[in-house]
From TrEMBL:
Homology family: Belongs to the TRAFAC class TrmE-Era-EngA-EngB-Septin-like GTPase superfamily. EngA (Der) GTPase family.
Protein's job: GTPase that plays an essential role in the late steps of ribosome biogenesis.
Subunit structure: Associates with the 50S ribosomal subunit.
Binding site for GTP 1: 9-16, 56-60, 118-121
Protein name as catalogued: GTPase Der
Protein origin, superkingdom: Bacteria
Species the sequence originates in: Isoalcanivorax beigongshangi
The EngA-type G domain, residue ranges: 3-162
Length: 162
């Protein structure tokens, strides 16, 4: 069985960058423009002999002018297909209202949700992570999708649940 991992989070937190790292492709569109990845995007990868499927979503909270929309159909579908959710937040930007709204929605899923505090390259990972414990998600992983810092350890922990 290949566990299916859905990458969710508000725009610009690094979902597509992590997708590329986990699948080692340049397929997902990475940009400084929030909301550019419009479609769900599937990829596969493996750590050692453990394969997995990743879904990059760009569909959550991408309303205009910072308004957080209800979870879109595409993101909802990705969540329904997932065996585990990788919920990304931006460890440099800090905790936002959109993160809190998403966390509330994700807590209601009957699936493992891992909180990934991303962009911890060049910052103290403990300091960057501290405020995110308020989201009430116990599986917290400080990572840097861009450099790969802690990504292998994180994915091993996620896969160990299956
Ligand atoms: P998405 O909207 O969630 O898919 O975010 P993207 O993957 O497109 O990334 C948004 C921006 O954050 C881009 O400029 C990335 O280069 C940057 N970014 C992503 N991951 C990291 C990271 O680990 N560290 C740093 N410093 N920047 C990152
Ligand atoms: Mg994206």
């Amino acid at each position: 069985m290949k566990p299916v991992l859905a990458l969710v989070g508000r725009p610009n937190v690094g979902k597509s960058t992590l997708f590329n790292h986990l699948t080692r492709t340049r397929d997902a569109l990475v940009a400084d423009f929030p909301g550019l990845t419009r479609d769900r995007k599937y990829g596969s990868g493996r750590i050692g002999d453990r394969p997995y499927v990743v879904i990059d979503t760009g569909g959550i909270g991408e309303g205009l002018e910072g308004v957080v929309e209800a979870t879109t159909n595409q993101a909802m579908q990705a969540l329904s297909e997932a065996d585990a959710v990788l919920f990304l937040v931006d460890g440099r930007a800090g905790l936002t209202a959109a993160d809190q709204q998403l966390a509330q929605q994700l807590r209601q899923l009957d699936k493992p949700v891992h909180l990934l505090v991303n962009k911890i390259d060049g910052v103290d990972e403990h300091a960057a992570s501290a405020e995110f414990y308020a989201l009430g998600l116990s599986d917290l992983h400080p990572v840097a999708a861009e450099t790969g810092r802690n990504v292998r350890r994180m994915i091993e922990q996620v896969l160990s649940g299956f």
